[in-house]
Amino acid sequence: MPRFDSPTPLAILPTMRVIRSFLSLPKTDSFRVESADSRLSILRDKERALVPPVSCRQYPTALFTALSMSVGFLALTTPLASAHLEDRIVAVVNSDLIMLSDVKREFAPQQERIKKQHQGDDLAQHLKLAESMALTKMIERKLQLQEAKARKVEVSDQEVKVAFEQMKQQGGAIDPSNPQSARAVRDQLMLLKVIDREVRGNIMVGESEMKRYYQGHRDRFALPEEYTLSQIIVQSRSRDAADALTKIRKAMDELKRGEKFEDVALQYSDGPNALQGGRIGLVRRGELLPTIERAIAPLVPGGISEIVESADGFHIFRVEDKKPKQYRPFQEVQYEIQGLVFEQKTEDGFQSWLADLKNKAYIEIKF
Known about the structure:
Largest sheet: 4 strands, mixed
Helix content: 40-55%
Radius of gyration: 30 Å
């Protein structure tokens, strides 16, 4: 899996694995792929956990978002629509079944988006990929829920009620009386708890790790270059561009003859700071237009730029002062680093934990 400098929410980890997880499930004695299974004739009640796992630090916002999407899925899949779908088993995950209708419901929103973006053979390939991703996420979610139940992780009715109240405060339209919505909330809370217990609760971040991260990502904690600038601007919106260019060239000629920048700015500049000698003040690298930054980047304090054109008109800049890029000290950013390293280790721990669940699981794919 690709590495990221910024922490990756657990909610999107299954998506990032895409086909790799789907086609590369552990090849252990407990894993095999079959095209049919005539032995399974009785279908148990199917779990309807329609929300992917998220990091506890994202709750309740991520929970609200995921559950809102889940309710949308349910609304799209009416009994009438389902009647036209020939349902069948597409995967067995230990003692749980995943049905084709479950997969269709899972990737329904992605299906609509893909149909708007692709056509022909390209459309078929992307739809197949979306189905594979949906099945991958569902298998992983089944495994996590099974582990939570095996670890006797419990979610009280009060916790579910509180979750609904928090989502309502955020503008949610989820009906607590809907059994499927209530089940989705309960399952999501169970996932949060088991990930906290089995992954996040076992992670510690030492000072040596934080210092290594700091040394390896120093630019992340850098303050950009700072400039103290003055300018002469001749606006071209209120006059003919040729006249504006003629005026700014006259200003440049006077500067080259040795006239003081403040006096030239007072005489020629259309800017609101002309009375202050054209002084703009402090700006940071990245806050200016690229053409302006390129013009002032090589200048030393006291240096004057060439004429620079922008949508506002024509400019001449003087660099009054210039501070090079500086790095925030470790002591100032150590708590920020602690959070970044913790989330990175959480991601790695989650991947390892999930891989272990797959290695121990009995999985049959009939998709």
